[in-house]
User: What shape does this take?
Amino acid sequence: MDQIKIGKFIASCRKEQGITQAALAEKLGISDRAVSKWETGKSMPDSGIMLELCDFLKLNVNELLSGERIMAEIYDKRAEENLLAMKRELEEKNKQMLKAEYLVVIPAVLAGLVLVFVASFVTMPVWLRIVLLAFALMMIFIVAFIAVGIEQKVGYYECQSCGHRYVPTYWQTNLAPHTGRTRYMKCPECGKRSWQRKVLTKED
Assistant: This one.
């Protein structure tokens, strides 16, 4: 989606309604800075506020995401294009989140292992050795919990028995045996346990 085009369209529709950025922001319960970012193409309205924004600007969501008024005869086609564009953007964000998981985990685990090595083999007072070991283990555990949280929220797990894709709870994900991003869990659809792989979308 073209954020610059959408931003200009939001500005145009706002002016058509004769309201300022500050007035629109007040109606939506947000800052006028957020409205300014939309109109300059620096960000997009959150999905939770999109319907309310469209209501104030007298347009529909497909028109907002297209950055223009849509004729009735091409409405369905444009709606499909917008849905596909949103799906692609969500997939890309999910990929970035999973990459971020590695960027957080690998340096933290390596740093923790270095601290464990230092505490184990370098001569130092006992109290300092205990502090270093405790800090290293705490850091590794905290990062592991954060990493599982990222993985659990991004995408879905696919049951190998019935193909159902779902989002398990944090603790179901955290406590499940795993190899990489494949976890051994019970499917809520068929009730069978299997090694369920991480996928980014609800359906192929």
In short: The chain has three domains: 3-70, 91-152, 155-199.
